[in-house]
């Protein structure tokens, strides 16, 4: 199972994350994710292209149209979010920007739920690029037109693309909301892209990832220090024991940042479905 598959299960299903980075980040129950596998091209006659266009925005408010069945992940390089970031006093949702280790830059989000999905994407070792509000798709049929702006586009190391829409689970019961999310998924799947509607995950897993994200910046702990700590960890050793041993004559907490950075980077692994603590059992997972 690929490292993204755990985020694509139907509500109520769980999956082990033990295969991440050679047995890395493990443990997890992710709920509320509905996934459409990529289908055969041309489900809409001659493909989604002819009357379905993806508009991509670049700096200077330049927009470029691409027929959907010709769309490739490379088309988004250098693009900017379709909508501009907005914030106003009294707004009901939390919007902002998150510095992603995956991209080395800021990625915008428009709700706490979007931020949660963004954190998980940044933590996923298979994701190499993240685009927020990557494009606007416009569908033209006889006498009518529909438009849609997805929340995220995730690009994997192998070049696969996953379009993600984030929506609270209780909103999916609304037939109009469900239909508004279904038709873009059918279009993307018809062109060979994966599509995901995400509504949340195991809160313990999310809390752990959110905590580890504090160590995602390389300037927090030097690479050589992380490398030395990860190589010194003994498989099956509790986090607190590793801290005391690696700190030698110093305070145990002095070794903690390097170990937590190793967990974020996937160099170390533990069961993230349980609250991270000194009893968390470590094992080496990456090079």
Blueprint (SSEs and pairs):
Elements: E1 33-36, E2 52-58, E3 62-67, E4 79-80, E5 96-100, E6 105-109, H1 112-123, E7 127-132, E8 136-141, E9 144-148, E10 152-156, E11 161-166, H2 175-190, E12 194-198, H3 203-212, H4 223-232, E13 237-238, H5 239-247, H6 256-265, E14 268-269, E15 281-284
Parallel strand pairs: 11-12
Antiparallel strand pairs: 1-12, 2-3, 2-4, 2-8, 5-6, 7-10, 8-9, 10-11, 13-15, 14-15
Helix pairs in contact: 4-6
Structural write-up:
The chain has 287 residues and is an alpha+beta fold. The protein has two domains: 32-198, Trna Endonuclease, Chain: A, domain 1; 203-284, no CATH class. Helix content is 23%, strand content 24%. It has six helices and 15 strands. The chain has helices at 112-123, 175-190, 203-212, 223-232, 239-247, 256-265; strands spanning 33-36, 52-58, 62-67, 79-80, 96-100, 105-109, 127-132, 136-141, 144-148, 152-156, 161-166, 194-198, 237-238, 268-269, 281-284. The chain has a five-stranded mixed sheet with strand order 1-12-11-10-7, with helices on both faces. Strands 2, 3, 4, 8 and 9 form a five-stranded antiparallel sheet that branches. It has a three-stranded antiparallel sheet with strand order 13-15-14. Helix 4 (223-232) packs across helix 6 (256-265). The chain starts with 32 loop residues before the first strand and ends with a strand.
């Amino acid at each position: 199972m690929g490292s993204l598959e755990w985020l694509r299960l139907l509500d109520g299903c769980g999956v082990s994350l033990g295969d991440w980075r050679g047995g890395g980040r493990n443990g997890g129950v992710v709920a509320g994710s509905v996934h459409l596998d990529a289908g055969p091209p041309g489900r809409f006659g001659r493909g989604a292209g002819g009357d379905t266009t993806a508009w991509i925005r670049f700096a200077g408010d330049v927009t470029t149209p691409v027929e959907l069945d010709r769309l490739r992940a490379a088309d988004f390089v250098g693009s900017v979010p379709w909508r501009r970031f907005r914030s106003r006093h009294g707004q009901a949702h939390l919007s902002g920007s998150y510095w992603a280790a995956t991209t080395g830059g800021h990625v915008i989000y428009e709700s706490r739920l979007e931020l949660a999905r963004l954190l998980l994407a940044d933590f996923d070792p298979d994701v190499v690029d993240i685009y927020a509000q990557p494009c606007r798709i416009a569908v033209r049929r006889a006498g009518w037109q529909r438009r849609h702006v997805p929340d995220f586009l995730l690009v994997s190391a192998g070049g696969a693309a996953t379009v993600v829409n984030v929506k609270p689970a209780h909103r999916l019961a609304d037939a109009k909301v469900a239909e508004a999310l279904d038709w873009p998924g059918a279009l993307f799947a018809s062109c060979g892209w994966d599509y995901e509607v995400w509504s949340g995950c195991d809160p313990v897993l999310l809390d752990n990832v959110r905590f580890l994200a504090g160590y995602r910046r390389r300037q927090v702990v030097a690479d050589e220090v992380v490398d030395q700590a990860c190589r010194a960890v003994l498989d099956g050793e509790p986090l607190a024991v590793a801290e005391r041993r690696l700190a030698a004559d110093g305070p145990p907490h002095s070794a903690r940042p390097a170990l937590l950075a190793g967990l974020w980077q996937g160099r170390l692994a533990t069961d993230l479905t349980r609250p991270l603590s000194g009893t968390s059992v470590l094992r080496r997972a990456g090079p």
